[in-house]
Design goal:
Layout (H helix, E strand, L loop, with lengths): L1 E3 L19 E7 L4 E2 L9 H17 L13 E3 L4 E4 L18 E6 L4 E2 L5 H18 L1 E7 L11 H8 L17 E2 L2 E2 L13 E2 L1 H12 L9 E2 L1 H13 L10 H9 L6
Parallel strand pairs: 1-5, 2-6, 2-8, 3-7, 4-6
Antiparallel strand pairs: 4-5, 9-10, 11-12
Length: 267
């Protein structure tokens, strides 16, 4: 998960004490309910996401929704660059689900609006799944994934996002926006000619997918999603150490070739 800590987004401290939540039925997905800049998903526009999260926190704490909150009303927030902002975090009661509903589900905000940027991109959907899994792991969230409108009279989280929720909130089937074609020779992928490393945004492609698939077949625990994120880097470094390469976490030509050629020593 590409996590943005409260310190990293310079969150204002809460004005009161959070109410602890031991567990929830699951997670409810929200949108901003206002305009979001149409270009917010641009490659150099992440600062707009940070600004928007700040504005929402200020609005919540100043009573802009008719009631003053002690803090940002959501547990987590997700942006179209794949980042997950820590709001109230796990095991803390949110304030965004509606009267009497906050203890039942955690609240996760998608930086999608009712005008401008209204449809989540695949990178945001992956971030939302990361947030859901984080709350299940760290906050004992149950399996339910619902929209804000489920149980409260509102248009939130908007048509496109709610359709995704109703479909089961799946990770995108084809996350590779710019795949690199992998050429095979004798059933072995030929070095694709680019160094694969942890980058911002994450590197994606069929070459990443092929490498992940091979490592999974070798018994490593790794998501085969075609996206080279922190998990893939960690697995790569561990694999390199196992095969006596420098554990850089970077897939260069030597690492690529040995992925298919290496065999464990005979016992």
């Amino acid at each position: 998960m590409k996590q943005v800590s409260r310190a990293a987004w310079n969150a204002a401290p809460p004005t009161g004490t959070y109410t602890r939540v031991a567990s929830t039925r699951g997670v409810k997905i929200h949108y901003t309910g206002g305009p979001v800049p149409a270009d917010i998903a641009g490659p150099k526009k992440h600062k707009l996401c940070v600004q928007l999260v700040h504005q929402i926190q200020q609005m919540h704490m100043s009573g802009g929704r008719g009631e003053k909150y002690i803090d940002f009303g959501y547990n987590l927030a997700c942006c179209p660059h794949g980042y997950v902002f820590i709001g109230r975090g796990a095991h803390h009661l949110p304030a965004a689900n509606g009267p009497g509903l906050n203890s039942q589900h955690y609240a996760v905000l998608a930086l999608v609006g009712d005008s401008g940027f209204t449809k989540p991109n695949d990178t945001m959907l992956h971030a939302l799944r990361d947030a859901i899994e984080y709350l299940r792991d760290k906050g004992d969230a149950g399996n339910e994934i619902k929209g804000h409108r489920d149980g409260y009279a509102t248009s939130c989280p908007g048509g496109p996002l709610y359709a995704w929720v109703k479909a089961g909130a799946p990770r995108p089937d084809k996350p590779m926006e710019k795949p690199i074609r992998v050429v095979y020779k004798d059933s072995v992928p030929v070095w694709p000619g680019r160094v694969i490393k942890l980058d911002d945004p994450y590197m994606q492609g069929n070459d990443v997918h092929a490498w992940q698939y091979k490592l999974k077949k070798r018994g490593w625990t790794i998501d085969v999603d075609g996206i080279y994120g922190p998990q893939s880097k960690a697995v790569c470094a561990s694999y390199q150490e196992k095969v006596a390469l420098k554990p850089t976490g970077v897939i260069d030509e030597e690492t690529w070739d040995i992925t298919w050629s290496w065999k464990p020593p005979a016992k």
